Here is the input.
Amino acid sequence: MTERFWETKALSEMSASEWESLCDGCAKCCMFQFEDEDTGHLMQTDVVCGLLDIEQCQCTDYANRTTLVPDCIQITPENILTLNWMPESCSYRQLALGNGLPDWHPLLTSDRASTRDLGHSVRGKVVSANDVDDIESRIISWFEP
Here is the structure.
């Protein structure tokens, strides 16, 4: 990959590997959320997709995730700014808004674990949907989209 390609290329110009490398590995997009149909207000839970490896903050079947989990949405340059449930800290969102990557991003630290190690991921804060019966009872207030 070209060094600091995210500073010279539009999101739509990036190769698949460049695009994928933009993911900071926070796994906040894997959290279950509810939207109030009347107000549009989003309510986050501390429950994540059953495919997520909570310790590594990585999908255990990334290639098949949208088939295995029909609600899983593939993030693209075309839809990133329409996904109101994506966290403000999301690197895809930040670049689409014309901002830079945070200093803890793996592309800047050269350490894929930096997001987790520096506390910017869901690790240690969430439970798997595989272990929860009543997701609606798990609404939280610590997460800001």
Summary: The longest strand covers residues 42-48. The chain is about 15% helix and 10% strand. Residues 16-21 form the longest helix (6 residues).
